[in-house]
Amino acid sequence: MILRIIKHGEKVLRQPCEKVDYAAVKKDLPRLLRDMFQTMYSVRGVGLAAPQIGLNLRLSVIDVKPEGKSRRLVLINPEIVSKSGKLVQEEGCLSLPGVYAEVERWSHVAMKALDARGRPYEMTGEGLLARAFQHEVDHLNGKLFIDHLDFITKLKVMSAIKDVRKNWT
Ligand code: NI
């Protein structure tokens, strides 16, 4: 099922999320994950966090399609365990459709989380994957990419948001 994506300005996006109790969500998780991936793919996203569908849970899905092939990642209670390098690249967010800005991120990141079956794993990422890890962990802390912008850029982006938000659904 394709779910509505919560947009910037709605409160749930700004609330730090609760840690997932895997045993408590286990039964509902397969359907929830299926819906999250379907919703994300329907708008050509590379990541979607639970608060973006109105759930206050430390859970995100990512698929940056390395080498053009789909690779579904499930991040439950993700934490960034190491990071290095800096990279400035344009970034967007499904909760701010039509809004893009250059954001400085760590270029290399190691992340640990639980997978869809509740098993701990650690994964290193660079480039777009490293950026997605950071963007998703930010979501779970109630943070959006526009929070990383300097004052002047943020003013410009806020005015762009005013223009595009009338097209948001
Ligand atoms: Ni986002």
Describe this structure in words.
With 169 residues, the protein is of the alpha+beta class. It contains 4 helices and 5 strands. The chain has helices spanning 22-25, 29-42, 127-140, 151-164; strands at 47-49, 59-62, 73-91, 101-114, 120-126. The longest helix is centred in the first third of the chain and has 14 residues, at 29-42. It is globular, with a radius of gyration of 15 Å. The protein starts with 21 loop residues before the first helix and ends in a 5-residue tail after the last helix. The structure holds nickel (II) ion. Nickel (II) ion binds next to helix 3.
Give the low-confidence spans. Answer: none
Kindly state the percentage of residues in helix.
Answer: 25-40%
CATH superfamily: Peptide deformylase
- Which CATH class applies here? Alpha Beta
Q: Bin the strand percentage.
A: 25-35%
**Radius of gyration from the CA trace?**
15 Å
What is the CATH topology descriptor? Answer: Peptide Deformylase
For the secondary structure, the number of strands is 5
Main β sheet profile: 5 strands, antiparallel
Domain module count? 1
- Largest sheet strand order: 1-2-3-4-5
SSE series: HHEEEEEHH
